[in-house]
Each structure stands twice: as C-alpha cells, then as structure tokens.
Amino acid sequence: MSRSYEEEFFEVFARKDSDDALQHVGSVKAPSSDIAITRAWYVYDQHPWSEMCLVPLAAVIPITERSKRVKIKPI
Amino acid sequence: MTNPTYNTDAVLRVADTKLVLGNVCIATVFNGRSIGDFATLLAISGTALGAARALYRLLEQGGSDYGWLEHGRDASEIASAEVLDSAPESWADLMVTIYLTEAITSAAAADWQSEADPLLANQARMIARDSAFHSAYCLGWLKIELEEKPDTVRSAFVARMAQAMRWIKQCAPSAEARFLADVAHLLDLLNESVPTVTASALWDKRLGRSAPVPSGLWEIVRFKDVELAR
Q1: Does residue B3 fall inside a structural domain?
Q2: What is the pTM of this model?
C-alpha cells in the first residue's frame, strides 16, 4: 500500500488579461507548493489565463470569525 | 513542400522523445498518489503528444510522410531518447525520468525559438513553457521522496542522468550549458556531480540512440488501431 502524504490547501487566483481583476477560481490540495503550481495550472484550464497565482490557505489571516477556519469561495 | 532551414533530424529526435514520453505517462498514470496526480500525468502526456503531432506536421511540410512518421515506423526507426527506455521502477524514478526528459527536450528546442519558421519557433516556446510546469511538479515530488527514500531517488538519478547527458552531448552539444542549468536544482538537491559519459560504438547519430526501442516499450508506443478495431 502506498504511503499517503500530508497535503494542504492552496487557493488559486487568476486573471484573463491585464484589464481583468485577479479573481479566486478555486483551490487545490498538494503536499507542496511546487506540486500545487502544476496541479492548479492543469486543473483550472478553463481559460488561457494571463496570470495565475497561489496562496497557501494557512497563510490567510481571518479578521472576522477569528476562531474559525477561513473559507474562501470562488465567485 | 518547403525546404526546411532547420535540422530535421534534431526535430525528429525531440518529436519522437515527446511521443514516447506521452505514452510512458499514460502507462503510469494510476501510479499517482491522488486524482490530482492522475490529472497532471495526463496533462503531461497531452502536451507531449501534442508537441509530437505538431512537430510531425512540421516535418511533413518539409517532405516527410505524416502517416509514416505517426504510425508507419518500427522500433528501429524511432528516434526517442534512451533515458525513457527502461520502465520506471518507482514513483521517484518516474519523476526523475520525466524531469530529465523535459530538460533535454526543452534545452534542445530552445534555439528554435529564434528560428525563421514561425511554426517551429512557436512550438519551441510552448515546449519551454510546458516544461517549466512539469519540471516544477517533478522536483516537488522528488524533494518529498528524498526525505523518505533517498537511495531510491539517487539510484534512479544516477542511471538516467548518464543517459540524458549522453543524449545532450551527442545530439545537442550546443544545448549542454542550458541543460545543466535546468538540472542544477536536482543536482544540488542530491549533491551529485555531472557524470562523465561516452557514446557506444553503436551510437546512431541520426536517431540519437545506440539500439532500437526495447520491445516492452515499443508494445506501449506502437499504434494498435487495426487490432483495437476488431
């Protein structure tokens, strides 16, 4: 049986062109940011994005509801 | 038909290497650790086969027969890099195989970005772009595997790096510096040095190989449309 690896959530943001706002398009789970980069690029391929970036969910600091885990919902 | 300004043997070697890489990724997809890995391996395969198809079309414009290129050749006529010849023996070995294959093909194709032929130049840019993603993915997994199974990673690297180095020196010597820059991350990670390699007396300069594609691999790569249609 193969080992299961610990994975964390990465929130994915992208924009279609420079006039577009960077928007949340979804999330991926991965054992590292290197792997998350490629997973995000190939999973969220609905547009030829001009820009895409990732943020580890753990890096997001809640301001409201500070006792709860942050939930980021796509538009 | 146009008279190509580029080295058609060099284009064939990259095209066939992409063809075999695409097939290897499909054959190994369910060794992935999650559905995310299945999707990534299928994406790597898709871009590799897409590049192979586009490069075969380019060679067709230069006078080659597309049907022959795609499914008319036998194992002795395929110009794929020997780094893909032996089946990966572990997840780490698969990651090393993909990483080095991407490194040699993108290094060899880099010069084509300034080629006069716009189709070849565009294809070279796409190969470079896709390669960067695939390499990041493989390196990410190798960093993890190195923590658990360092000997497995190291033995896979030593074997395949020698084959990759041989291919670069024999097939694309002007790309050696670029190739070594691309694999520097992995060399640093493993604390390994660049191997010294020589080509065997059987080395075929045009195909970039010393022997036909092994039978096990050929069975995966060869077209089976007639058999499947029955």
Answers
A1: no
A2: 0.90
| DSSP labels, B148-171 | H-HHHHHHHHHHHHHHHHHHHHHH
Interface check B177 vs A, CB under 8 A: no
Residues B13-34 have pLDDT tens digits of 999 999 999 999 999 999 998 8
User: Number of residue pairs across A and B with CB atoms under 8 Å?
Assistant: 52
| Contact across the interface for B137 and A2, Cβ inside 8 Å | no
CATH number of the domain at B135, please: 1.20.1260.10
Residue B176 to residue B167: CA distance in whole angstroms: 10
| Chain A residues touching residue B33 (CB < 8 angstroms) | 2, 4-5
**Tokens representing residue B202 in the block:** 């059987």
The string of pLDDT tens digits covering residues B173-189 is: 999 999 999 999 999 99
Does B134 sit within 8 Å of A7, measured CB to CB? Answer: no
Q: How many domains does chain B have?
A: 1
CATH annotation of A1-75: 3.10.20
Residue from B137, B142, B147, B149 to probe the interface with A (highest A Cβ count within 10 Å): B137
- The neighbour count for residue B40, using CB atoms within 10 Å, is 26
Q: Encode A6-69 in three state secondary structure.
A: CCEEEEEEEECCCCCCCEEEEEEEECCHHHHHHHHHHHCCCCCCCEEEEEEHHHCCCCCCCCCC
Residues of A in contact with B47 (CB under 8 A): none
